[in-house]
Amino acid sequence: MNRSGYLASPRRPGQNRRVARALRIALVVHGYPPELFGGTECTVQALARGLARAGHEPLVIAGTDRHAEQRRVSRAEDRDPESGRTFPVYRIHRSDLHYGHWTKSRSPFVGRAFEELLDRERPALVHVHHSETLTSELVVRAARRRIPAVVTLHDLSTTCLVYFRVHPSTRAFCEAPLAPDPCVDCAGSVFVPAPWLARADQAAVLERGRADVRRELECARAVLALSHDQARTLERFLGPVAPVRVVPPASGSRLAPVDPLPPPGDGRPLALGCWATLHLLKGTDLLIEAVRLLGERGVPVELHLAGIEGDAAYVAGLREQARGLSVRFHGRFDALTGHAVTRVHAFVGATRAHETWGVVLDEAIGLRLPMVLPRAGAYAERLREGEGALFFEPGDARALAVVLERLWREPALLAELRARIPASETLPRIDDHVRRLVAIYDEVLEAGAPVLGPEDPVQRAADETFLVNWDRECARSR
After folding, report:
1. End-to-end alpha carbon distance in the chain
2. Which whole-number Å values give the CA distances from 25 to 16, 108, 132, 395, 408, in the listed order?
3. Among 243, 340, 386, 400, fewest CB within 10 Å belongs to which?
4. DSSP annotation of 6
């Protein structure tokens, strides 16, 4: 390894390009395929494979939702299908109860396991994508080992205890700054109750977590967001912690266009598809309500839903809500190519979140499917009205139904929208994304890691004691 942290990279079988020097980079994320298939996880996988394909040396350090009886680190491998290159995927398994709880964001065990992996693998740089299920001090721990870090903020979780700034009662975007009031009560309605923690204790944990976020971003040598809308929102709620650069993500796949269906009418219903987790946050209930409203107006609609089923009670409610309607639940899917959810007139989404990018938009663009979307977040930034998409007011099923009725009443509109969908060539390509990130990595390596003092053993012991007491009190309350 030379002083810049690069390794010599000989040609390997199946490698279709060479780089002058290969960077060993640790990508850190809360979960990784095939266990988790969300937008963040899949874009990190695309990046890891893209780095490998470009001749670099990625490794993945991930959290997991697979609870372990004993704390441990497991090792697997992933493979870039184009070049044949493989790279390690380490998963840190926690054994404590409800480790995704907002009050358990610090884990000394995860911190030590992370440090041990850094010592073993000796990456030149750490790129943190998400710390949920891991620990809140990843950048700081890397810096103590003289390893600089990049942070990509994929959502708004650094500004909100429930991650997406969607209020659980009103289901609307929350304008409140992160603070004990009202955030502790809001989180209490979402997470497992922790009555053994007094309100003052919860307020102290919130303030500590907010300080951890600020320190992580201050110690990172580059902080990235996915869209300008997200960057503005982060700066609005986080304040001037660090300059935020916008680097759109890139997926590793390109979908072939689907042949357009005959327009609706003459006995043919308006066919709509949505592939997303069936979850309140994604607004699946709004889609079904819009179908019901359209039926009352005599507009025949067929809705196809595909994706992981979230909360069981919510999904059961969806099925009851869809009773008697033309709504088809296809369940989890492995690929969109040839799937029934894409054999539709248009993609429709009703997410309540301020989406920060929207991989589903990339997929719909590749499929050449017109889109009906809420006018919020990155969706409204990425697409303009009439240029492949129609918009409605977020959270409003009636407004959605009005837009969908236009597609039925004006069948030529579908062809017009399809003709104006942005070219798939305009989407971020993974090879270009890798090149842009490597240029940022070079800057970060040149700057080096900030100089930090050693870990405070008193604070570490207090963090360990907090988690032990949390689990003991939680077990007693069952």
Report:
1. 52
2. 20, 23, 20, 40, 50
3. 243
4. E
Q: List, in sequence order, every beta strand (DSSP E) within 281-406.
A: 301-306, 327-329, 346-348, 371-374, 389-392
Residue whose C-alpha is closest to residue 4's, from 122, 124, 142: 124
H or E stretch covering 245: strand 244-246
Q: Tell me the per-residue pLDDT of 65-96, one tens digit each, with 9 for 90 and over.
A: 877 778 999 999 999 999 999 999 999 999 99
The Cα 393–Cα 76 span in angstroms is: 44
Going by DSSP bridges, is the β-strand pair 86-93/244-246 parallel, antiparallel, or unpaired? unpaired
- Going from the C-alpha of 384 to that of each of 85, 370, 380, 421, the distances in angstroms are 39, 12, 7, 10
DSSP calls for 90-111: EEEE--STTTTSGGG---HHHH
The DSSP call for residue 62 is E
Distance CA 333, CA 331 (A): 6
364-413 residue pLDDT tens: 999 999 999 999 999 999 999 999 999 999 999 999 999 999 999 998 99
Q: Which of 238, 301, 297, 294 is nearest to 268 (CA)?
A: 301
Q: 140, 128 in Cβ contact below 8 A?
A: no
